[in-house]
Write a structure and sequence with these properties.
heterodimer, A: mainly alpha, 2 domains, about 75% helix, B: about 120 residues, alpha/beta, Ribose 5-phosphate Isomerase B, Chain: A, five-stranded parallel β-sheet, 5 helices
Chain lengths: ~425, ~120
């Protein structure tokens, strides 16, 4: 966390941001799934660059300002919302091809400098901010493991949901008692997913859906994506390297676990946590395939990080060179399989339906985990005075139109509480808890 | 009037439509892709979808397949939805409406009101 200033880190982040801004300028790939279908409007001449730029800005600014900043300040790791949503915008508004990478590179340098500065300031404060922020990660892994159960409730009925909960809980109890070497959270998630798929298959075999015409919906527009494959592979390699050198976390399900792993001094604990983060990230990636694949196929514009499996490769590889090779290979494989994935999704609309439920349930469990973790963090910082401040920030947001996303409000409240407690401490109205 | 519901938190969106239309509007819970073929065949009149940003997963497939001109994001993430914007979109002839998950409860009543008014019910 303090090693953010090495030349390697700066070089990687600057090149990465310059490159993703270039991809966005060329309309090859953007990170925001909602921006993807608007890009052809520009390419086919129905929309001008400034108009496209204002759409990109409008879609993304809320994400950058809330989840983008909050997850990074709370963990000390960069995240894709902060970097890639901004380079989407920068690439699009650049009037010339060569301006995009310059603007992107400047953004990369700015974020890393600002992060280093914030860390230095925060670690020197009387109320221990950074240490308490570690609390946020604790409920994340255990809570994420519950998403398949929530998805079962959402897609099927309460009876199936409760049965699945009982089975999964029994597995947890038995494993912790008899096989404590296995991660109960990971096995729980596995059992939940098997149940979810099982119920879906049974339901599908009962319903005969007329899916013939849905197939040609995905008239394979992958040619444009294939043409850009070399650029997309470079992007995948760069992202995997950024993950590998411990300056980047791919999403809310992994970033807090990774921050904890990188802070841990015990190598075994650290590598266990990294594997846990990679597994969660992989599951999240599976949930997102239908969305990313369908938007990519219908538009010819790919995702900056592809199906996001490059993140997992980056976490797990032993060194940056292997990470780069692995990242590029994963993107190559994804693009080659894209047409097939499209056909498959066209034949089984229920999978896309399940994917919507899975993503909703992942969001639900993560919002819960981040709020619980953030409350634990503020109590650690300032007892129930801290709780008062954070709880009121949460409720004020609820009551005034939820301007800050639920996914971000926990960490935002924790950061704000830390700042307020430190200010109180400076004027002598608050004594730090030891 | 019949509305197809897709995107995230579909059950919440559908329940909100039922509640605020007083049963005057029928809802069909489907996926974005399912909704495209229903709209094209005329089986439904409109589409509502929610996602994190309101413009992403909610309506991206709709934009790609029925055209940008017929789609809009009514409530973006972090914004408070405005009645006059909703009315403007409805009167412009938009048929697919995206909204952020957080804003479903606030956006649906305004949309339902504007759509019912337009159809003269």
């Amino acid at each position: 966390m303090t090693g953010n200033f090495s030349v390697l880190n700066f070089t990687v982040v600057i090149i990465l941001c310059a490159f993703t801004a270039f991809l966005s300028h060329m309309g090859m790939a953007v990170f925001h799934d909602g921006l993807r279908p608007v890009i052809p409007e520009y390419i086919e001449g129905r929309m001008k660059r400034p108009e496209l730029g204002s759409i990109a800005f409008g879609l993304s600014v809320g994400f950058i300002a809330s989840v983008g900043i909050a997850h990074t300040v709370a963990t000390g790791l960069l995240n894709p919302w902060l970097l890639f949503l901004t380079t989407d915008i920068l690439g699009i508004i650049s009037p010339k091809k060569w301006i995009a990478p310059i603007l992107g590179g400047i953004w990369g340098a700015l974020t890393l400098t600002a992060l280093g500065f914030i860390n230095t300031v925060l670690t020197g404060l009387p109320v221990n901010f950074i240490g308490a922020m570690g609390e946020i990660s604790n409920p994340v892994v255990s809570c994420f493991a519950l998403f398949p159960l929530i998805a079962i409730f959402m897609q099927f009925n309460a009876k199936k949901g409760i049965i699945s909960t009982v089975i999964t809980f029994a597995v947890r109890i038995l494993l912790t008692k008899f096989v404590p070497s296995l991660s109960a959270d990971a096995m729980e998630m596995f059992v939940g997913i098997v149940l979810l798929i099982g119920f879906a298959v049974v339901q599908d075999s009962k319903l005969k859906h007329t899916g013939e015409e849905e197939e040609n919906v995905f008239s394979v527009r992958t040619a444009r994506i294939r043409k850009n494959i070399v650029f997309l592979m470079i992007s995948g390699a760069l992202i995997a390297v950024a993950c590998n050198i411990h300056i980047f976390g791919g999403s809310e399900v992994s970033i807090y676990t990774l921050a904890k792993a990188y802070k841990s001094t015990d190598p075994a604990t650290s590598s266990g946590l990294i594997q846990q983060a990679a597994l969660s990230e992989f599951m999240r990636g599976l949930g997102f395939i239908p969305l990313i694949a369908t938007t990519a196929i219908t538009t010819g514009v790919y995702g900056v990080a592809g199906f996001t499996f490059v993140y997992c490769v980056g976490y797990l590889m032993p060194n940056p060179v292997f990470a780069a090779i692995g990242g590029a290979a994963v993107i190559l494989l994804e693009v080659l399989l894209l047409g097939w994935v499209g056909k498959f999704l066209g034949k089984f609309p229920s999978i896309r339906d399940a994917s919507d439920n899975i993503r909703t349930s992942m969001t639900t469990v993560m919002e819960f985990a981040l709020i619980i973790g953030s409350i634990n963090a503020v109590v650690k910082m300032g007892g129930y005075t801290g709780f008062f401040i954070a709880a009121m920030i949460y409720f004020i947001n609820e009551m005034t139109g939820k301007r800050i996303m639920k996914m971000a409000i926990g960490p935002v409240a924790a950061i704000a509480t830390g700042v307020i407690l430190n200010l109180l401490c400076y004027v002598g109205l608050f004594v730090p808890i030891k | 009037m019949k509305i197809a519901i897709g995107g995230l938190s579909k059950n919440v969106t559908a329940a909100a439509v039922q509640k605020f239309s007083g049963g005057k509007i029928e809802t069909v819970i489907t996926t974005d892709i399912g909704a495209v073929s229903m709209l094209k065949k005329g089986e439904v009149d409109y589409y509502f979808g929610a996602c994190e940003s309101g413009g992403g997963a909610a309506i991206s497939i709709l934009i790609g397949m029925i055209g940008y001109a017929k789609c809009c994001t009514v409530a973006k993430n972090g914004q408070v939805v405005k009645k006059e914007n909703v009315e403007k979109f409805v009167n412009e002839g938009k048929i697919a409406f995206g909204m952020s998950v957080e804003s479903i409860e606030k956006t649906v009543p305004l949309l339902v009101e504007a759509l019912l008014e337009k159809s003269g019910e």
